[in-house]
Amino acid sequence: MTLSPGYNVTTLQVHVGVSNYALRLLADKQQFSDPDGAAEKAGISSALWSLFGVLWPAGRVLAEEMSVFPLAGKSILEIGCGLGLASLICKSRGADITASDYHPLAGEFLAHNTALNHLNPIAFHQADWGAEGSPSPLGRFDLIIGSDILYERQHPAQVAAFLALHANPTAEVVFTDPGRGRCGPLRRRLAEQGYGCVDDHRRFETHETPPFKGRLSLYRRNGQ
Prior knowledge:
The chain has 224 residues and is of the alpha/beta class. It is built from six helices and ten strands, in the order E-E-E-H-H-E-H-E-H-E-E-H-E-H-E-E. It is globular, with a radius of gyration of 17 Å.
């Protein structure tokens, strides 16, 4: 365990696919450090501040999927990247990946983890998919991915609005969700944008037995 300014971090070895990755993360979830007020300005409370720096089960499931998902020739965006494990997997496979998150420390942690794994830098944008109508330099992508991003009631509408701005006419979307019950509202909104959806219920925790609550959702749209 090491001490960074105002918070404790540790490094974890994570096995994904056939490879191991080093991941710097917060040493525990009960931390808060916002000396310059950047988190407060972004609307992040002390209770939510540490969530970006934890490797959650949904993040592992997304990373595993990205280790085998067809990526060649696609421009990819991870939203709510947190520690950026799925982005690291994509980068290690030679993909054109951009990561984004609204937490003020996410870019720093992503850069550190990218260097830890001897990968070339990953483009990062501090972007909030919940900020409707905000200008964004992100552009449009062929594949948009995210893990456990539907944790508040308004998030399905906000994510759908974000995808309308940032997905190409022909696009894929891969989201993992631990069973928060908001996948249905997102599915309905994305159906209005022309997406079909296939759900795959998966084990998110080693102790889980079928039927699994967690799911990986694959949305596809074929543009005109």
